[in-house]
Specification:
Number of helices: 4
Helix content: under 10%
Largest sheet: 7 strands, mixed
Number of domains: 2
Number of strands: 39
CATH class of the largest domain: Mainly Beta
Shape: globular
CATH superfamily of the largest domain: YVTN repeat-like/Quinoprotein amine dehydrogenase
Strand content: 35-45%
CATH architecture of the largest domain: 7 Propeller
CATH topology of the largest domain: Methylamine Dehydrogenase, Chain H
Mean pLDDT: 90
Low-confidence stretches: 1-18
Distance between the termini: 61 Å
């Protein structure tokens, strides 16, 4: 009897820069930002060494009667080392797992080169074909034109909660407006970061660009003091109390004061990039979250919080940080969550038995009475290839108890949340996800789930969110900019 590997490649709704491409995502790579198949000379491998890898696979694997194809996305760094980011085999067949093992051990990769320099991180796609008792692998270059067109086909929502009945009774109370590349002058639909400044101007990152939106027109607003070159992208943005915009562009931190751009020397401020940039309105601090810890800018001065100063921090790799109303700094790292109180005493939640143990917070908001809302990331997953992990959201109540909400005990449709925002007008919590769309939680027992199959929201992938001065909710998505306002 013939055995067949069935491969399903989901509709792609991803950013050209820095995204896992295929549905089966792996967490073995430590990644920040990377470009997809970029460079004047693209990443590849030594042909003879790769042929040897291929021959070894043919010797080790039992391929009798098997036919199929598997695609792998491989991240290659400037040193010629690589690891597999994602693949298409949803069955996790032992053959695919063996290929992943061999690709991760392979040492003869050649990095991408752009403008005469090795690209720090670039991903390439490999396709392995199985047939006639043999396996054959090669690079499959990305057709950028076709690839970008695929963005207009949003992926169907994946609802992992099969028991909750989503009535969505409040959906009729909202007006949903969408701006995309078809109905406006938005250059492209790849919107990952959003900020709204003191003038009400919306700042939006797009694929390899930065735009502003005044409610009618989108205008390019890219920095003009650095040669952008190929694949120059903007990854984080915030607007501070003085209406200065802070941006992380490729390898540099920039600010814009509405008249000129300023670039900051990484040797002076200690960082050349950031996972997130967060404004803290009550303290006039701007937080920069990076691999070097938490960098704080206030009144022209830069300071840094890391394990050298606070040995109790779980890690220097800070993914998110924000102050609460009691002047405590909450920090989400790659190895757990910490809180620094007003007396500089550190609580490492890896040492406590709470729902935050084993989790890093990735966003946070606070309500009027001091309840804190977190989105969670499980950093030490027991099942590396599991999609719906032990994450969801957590609420830290004013009595200091913490409760986790996930697909097992609530109406969360999927456990990975990108952003949480407390709505002070409606007294509800908005939650964005990258597979199940937008969640509305009334903080009692009512959960609603809006996405491209049941609402005018054009996608199930929502990167992040923010409110304007009127309380309207804006969503940065892979299908354009979305505004949600109460009717």
């Amino acid at each position: 009897m013939k055995r067949t590997i069935f491969i399903i490649l989901l509709g792609l709704t991803i950013q050209i820069n820095a995204q896992n491409l295929f549905p089966m995502k792996l967490d073995d790579c430590k990644i920040e930002k990377f470009c997809l198949d970029c460079g004047e000379t693209k990443a590849g491998y030594d042909e003879q060494a790769f042929l040897k890898l291929q021959n070894n696979l043919n010797k080790k694997l039992s391929l009798d009667g098997i036919k199929g194809i598997v695609r792998f996305q491989v991240l290659v760094n400037s040193n010629g080392r690589a690891c597999v980011l994602s693949h298409t085999d949803k069955s996790n067949n032992p053959i695919s797992l063996k290929i992943i093992e061999e690709l991760n051990k392979f040492k003869e990769w050649t990095p991408a080169i752009d403008e005469g320099k090795k690209v720090d991180k670039s991903s390439i796609n490999l396709i392995f074909t199985i047939g006639d008792n043999k396996i054959y692998g090669k690079v499959e270059r990305v057709d950028m034109s076709s690839f970008k067109k695929s963005f207009d086909n949003p992926r169907n929502p994946e609802i992992f909660n099969k028991t909750y009945n989503y009535k969505n009774e409040n959906l009729k109370n909202y007006k949903i407006t969408v701006w995309n590349a078809k109905n406006s002058n938005l250059p492209n639909n790849m919107n990952d970061q959003i900020a709204i400044d003191k003038d009400g101007l919306i700042w939006l990152t797009i694929d390899e660009g930065l735009v502003t939106f005044d409610g009618k027109d989108f205008k390019h607003a890219e920095q003009n003091i650095t040669d952008k070159g190929n694949f120059f992208s903007y990854y984080a943005i915030a607007s501070d109390n003085n209406n200065i915009k802070w941006v992380y562009g490729t390898k540099n931190i920039y600010s814009y004061d509405n008249s000129k751009w300023t670039k900051y020397d990484s040797t002076e401020i200690g960082i050349d990039g950031a996972y997130e940039i967060i404004n803290n309105p009550k303290t006039s601090e701007v937080f920069f979250c990076s691999d070097e810890g938490l960098t704080i800018y206030k009144e022209g001065k830069w300071t840094n919080i890391n394990q050298t100063k606070f040995k109790e921090l779980p890690s220097n790799r800070v993914k998110f940080a924000k102050r609460d109303s009691k002047n405590r700094i909450w920090i989400g790292t790659s190895k757990g969550t910490a809180m620094i109180d007003e007396n500089n005493q550190v609580t490492n939640f890896e040492n406590l038995s709470t729902p935050l143990k084993g989790k890093g917070i990735t966003s946070m908001d606070e309500d009027e009475i001091g309840n804190l809302y977190f989105s969670l990331y499980e950093f030490d997953r027991k099942e590396k290839r599991k999609v719906n992990n032990d994450e969801g959201i957590a609420i830290r109540y004013v009595d200091e108890t913490i409760k986790q909400f996930n697909t097992e005990n609530s109406g969360m449709p999927f456990n990975h949340a990108n952003c949480v925002l407390y709505d002070r007008n409606e007294k509800i919590l908005w939650i964005s996800s990258d597979r199940a769309g937008l969640v509305r939680y009334d903080l009692k027992d009512g959960w609603e789930n809006y996405h491209n199959k049941n609402s005018d929201i054009p996608t199930s992938y929502i990167s992040t969110m923010t409110f304007d001065k009127k309380g309207n909710l804006y969503l940065a998505t892979r299908q354009g900019l979305v505004k949600i306002e109460k009717k």
